[in-house]
Amino acid sequence: MASQRTLRTGRAALLLAGLLVVPLLPPCAASCPEKDLEDREEEANVVLTGTVDEIFNVDPVHNTYYCKVRVWRYLKGKSSINREILLDGGNKVTIGGFGNPRICDNQVATGDTRIFFLNLDPEAVGPDHKNELMLNSSLMRITLRNLEEVEHCVEGKKP
């Protein structure tokens, strides 16, 4: 009987300790705050939907990489995409900035389809990096609701 009482007391102590510690931990979202969708869209020169075809130029020190992305649809900024940016007959682009610690959701795998918020790379140096696109903010999963919200932002309407 005494062992059951000790066991119950131990469980109660663990439960109490957990209840006291959990409120002290920061919420997951607070560790990587994301701007409002309207601000993200406004700051991006190009917004497109696409599928990751290839991952390359992986930097093992900084954990950053580039992707070749098959473009399905431009939601914003198609006119700012010139021929130097387009690859493989004009339906693919190279995007950098994956793994950037300043961008919350920035990890992809081959075959992932996402909404990309992009800008021309202001730090691109040399002919090999001319006109590269870089992630400007977190990726978004493709859902009907997300597509509608981004389209409304691009059109300047309230979602």
UniProtKB/TrEMBL annotation:
Keywords noted in UniProt: Disulfide bond, Signal
Name the UniProt record assigns to this protein: NtA domain-containing protein
Pfam families (alphabetical): NtA (PF03146)
Residue ranges annotated for the NtA domain, each copy included: 32-159
Species, as recorded: Ilyodon furcidens (goldbreast splitfin)
InterPro entries referenced in this protein's UniProt entry, alphabetically: NtA_dom, TIMP-like_OB-fold
Disulfide bonds: 32-104
Gene3D superfamilies per the UniProt record, alphabetical: 2.40.50.120
Signal sequence, renumbered to the chain: 1-30
